[in-house]
Amino acid sequence: MTGPQALPNILEITPYKGGEKLVDAHKLSSNENPLGCSPAAQAAVIEAAKHMELYPDGSAAALRDAIGAKYGIDAARIVCGSGSDEIFQLLGRAYLRPGDNIVQSQHGFLVYRLVAQQAGAETRSAPEKDLTSDVDAMLELVDEKTKMVFLANPNNPTGSYISYSEVKRLHEGLPENVLLVLDGAYAEYVRNNDYSAGMELAGEQANVLMTRTFSKIHGLAALRLGWAYGPESVIDALHRTRGPFNVSAVAQAAGIAALNDDAFQAKSADHNAAELVRVRDAVEKAGFKTYPSVGNFVLIEFPEAAGRTSAEADAFLRGRGVVIRNVNVYGLPTCLRASIGTSAQNDDLIAAIEAFAKS
Q: Residue 308's domain is classified under what CATH number?
């Protein structure tokens, strides 16, 4: 007896798999904030939990106002979602249909491809230069069927970024009817002067949307909270597409508190800046290549020689209680991605890498 059959394009999807967590092991596979979250956000969650019987504000007005005040942007042009992942899903529902295509960089965030597959659209991936997005290569793939161009900047899993001048050049090369989606999930970690998450561009242009998340610098990954800022028409389409209560009251309360805790954000960014350099230098000293990263993780490349491969390194580290991320699904079979953890976790990661190098 045959039951209901899902659409063929849905059955072709390989579900997204997050970083694994093993018992009694350091989980350095999901780019989470090793310092936790703001104490003020924790207190806000406890207070909000006293009223679990009430529906949340469907418009997330107070949260949007807090975001607007934080960044000096119009709250009416902000939409909130259950993580920035939901924003991408909403974009797919609002703008993609079979026969369309999206353009991304070669090693772009996996969820973009999933969004296209769900809509029956094609994903076009532009070759990169040194694991960095190539504007010219991306523009070459844009045609009359392109609806969106996704740019993770900084990019996960490579850790690379392109300058704001290059982002603007990418936008200038796009037709007016193609939406440029700037994913700034790791924006708060970047300290380079030539970088911008694209907030100004999203505020000025009719075909640019910037997305951000509370999962990284704010440490609220468990609550699933993200937001987007852009032109009124795009924000309106996302509001029409999202569920009426898509962001919980607990998440909204925590988000407001987290935004206002500048000290926690600065502490998280400072910790990451120092520990990223320490981990990268130690890995290089052990004899393995790392790629420049402005995120809260580092991409490590391993030789293909027997006894030195990424798969063997992964197994060795797991045996030492350190779990980092296999990135085969991104087309990087010789690499592993390590999140920056606490100082103690990073000590164990470095010790494990050094031991593997000598094994």
A: 3.90.1150.10
